[in-house]
Amino acid sequence: MNRLLIIGPPGAGKGTQAVKIAEELKIPAISTGDIFRKNIKEETELGKEAKSYIDSGNLVPDSVTNNMVRARLDEADAAHGFLLDGYPRNIAQVHELDAILADKNQQIDRVLLLVADNDELVARLLNRAAEQGRTDDNEEVIRHRLKVYEEETAPLIAIYRERGIVKEVDGLGEIADVTERILKALS
Ligand code: ADP
């Protein structure tokens, strides 16, 4: 029962929580954003393909992202569970993920929905911009990423709700408190 997704708007704290939850459950945290950033840093072909999309706050094309996720889920450490952060991000990716897992007789067991209000999200992301210097963390790009989330990613929640596997968790408050809330929601 440890094939998990974490979904939420940019700035909700998905990445931070994903690492903690995955450690607790002894499964890998797989973040598509992190994989892209690593490839950009190392100037790989994948990184070169993804960079302009990421810097403008748009989704990287599915043709690139889907293959990357399929390859990552084929690695040995993901055989008995994983926590995916940042994928799926649109409806086509939901279907692709279903297909990737169906090939292995697997399915998603739970979806964690991490929620926070928009003003808090923008404030957190601007703060992170100052601290980490992520190239997609300036105000204009942040607002665009929130819009892409609303238009492309938020509709996925209804699909997973129909499957009865969504657990909603409030992302406001101390990091450790949010982690506790998530672990409780999963137990
Ligand atoms: P955040 O959730 O904080 O916005 P991420 O680190 O998850 O940031 O993603 C950063 C960027 O990487 C996205 O804005 C997008 O350009 C790209 N990206 C990440 N995951 C996907 C995906 N599943 N499909 C397409 N693009 C993606």
From TrEMBL:
Top-rank taxon: Bacteria
Concerning its family, UniProt says: Belongs to the adenylate kinase family.
Binding-site residues for ATP, renumbered to this chain:
G11, A12, G13, K14, G15, T16, R128, G173
Q: What class of enzyme is it?
A: transferase
Which GO terms of the molecular function aspect are on file? AMP kinase activity; ATP binding
GO annotation, biological process: AMP salvage
Instruction: Tell me its EC number(s), please.
Output: 2.7.4.3
Gene Ontology CC entries for this record: cytoplasm
**Which reaction is catalysed here?**
AMP + ATP = 2 ADP
Keywords on record: ATP-binding, Cytoplasm, Kinase, Nucleotide biosynthesis, Nucleotide-binding, Transferase
Which stretches of sequence are listed as region NMP? 31-60
Q: How does it assemble?
A: Monomer.
Cross-referenced InterPro entries, in alphabetical order? Adenylat/UMP-CMP_kin (IPR000850), Adenylat_kinase_CS (IPR033690), P-loop_NTPase (IPR027417)
Q: What is this protein called?
A: Adenylate kinase
Pathway field: Purine metabolism; AMP biosynthesis via salvage pathway; AMP from ADP: step 1/1
Q: What does this protein do?
A: Catalyzes the reversible transfer of the terminal phosphate group between ATP and AMP. Plays an important role in cellular energy homeostasis and in adenine nucleotide metabolism.
Identify the taxonomic lineage of the organism of origin: Bacteria, Bacillati, Actinomycetota, Actinomycetes, Micrococcales
Domain text from the record? Consists of three domains, a large central CORE domain and two small peripheral domains, NMPbind and LID, which undergo movements during catalysis. The LID domain closes over the site of phosphoryl transfer upon ATP binding. Assembling and dissambling the active center during each catalytic cycle provides an effective means to prevent ATP hydrolysis.
Where along the chain is AMP bound? T32, R37, N58, L59, V60, G86, Y87, P88, R89, Q93, R134, R145
Query: What Gene3D superfamilies has UniProt attached to this entry?
Result: P-loop containing nucleotide triphosphate hydrolases
Where is this gene product found? Answer: Cytoplasm
